[in-house]
Write a structure and sequence with these properties.
With 175 residues, the protein is mainly alpha-helical. It is built from 7 helices and 5 strands; from the N terminus they run H-E-H-E-H-E-H-E-H-E-H-H. Helix 6 packs antiparallel against helix 7. It is elongated and about 75 Å long.
Length: 175
């Protein structure tokens, strides 16, 4: 949870448990009681997510059959280890760990991937605009531009491989 709390994410707990159990969970997770919604039915969870979806991107983590409707309504649905098959089928991502550390790893990996995709796209676009314009204007031989094209592709792939994490904690087998 520390990794999630340190991120810019807004964290909430939606639970069907009574308020005393929900507040104990908030205390255990070091969350404010204002971040906990208790006594919620599956329909109420789904409605809360639909309302929040209007202004925020919602990622929902579920671990029970009563979370399927909320998982279906969220932008990103995550289930965690030990979840029933129905929850697993309703989720976009299934984290094998029983704890929530996989979610923090997943958000870190998503941030890195987004950055790599943006820079790779920028490099490719720059190459195509510059060398395409030079080839069309006759300043370089079109054959040379065609030969350089695979080199730019190899460069993009190489930079992508270089920038992506290879440490075991982020490997797909541990999420």
């Amino acid at each position: 949870m520390n990794g999630l709390r340190e991120s810019e994410l807004k964290l909430f707990v939606l639970t069907g448990d009574h308020s005393a159990a929900a507040n104990a969970l908030a205390n255990e997770l070091a969350l404010s009681t204002t971040q906990v919604r208790s006594n919620m039915s599956p329909e109420q969870k789904a409605q809360w997510i639909e309302e929040t979806n209007k202004s925020e991107t919602v990622a929902y983590v579920g671990d029970g059959i009563n979370d399927c409707l909320a998982l279906a309504k969220s932008h990103l649905a995550l289930s965690k280890g030990g979840s029933p098959k129905a929850t697993f089928k309703s989720s976009d991502v299934h984290i094998l760990d029983e704890d929530l550390n996989g979610i923090s790893k997943l958000t870190r990996l998503a941030d890195i991937t987004y950055s790599v995709v943006k820079s790779s796209l920028g490099l490719s676009l720059t190459y195509n605009v510059v060398f395409g314009a030079l080839a069309v204007s006759g300043l370089i031989n079109p054959f040379l531009a065609a030969v350089l094209m695979p080199i730019s592709s190899i460069t993009v792939v190489g930079l992508t491989l270089f920038r992506m994490p290879t440490d075991k904690p982020l490997a797909r087998n541990t999420l």
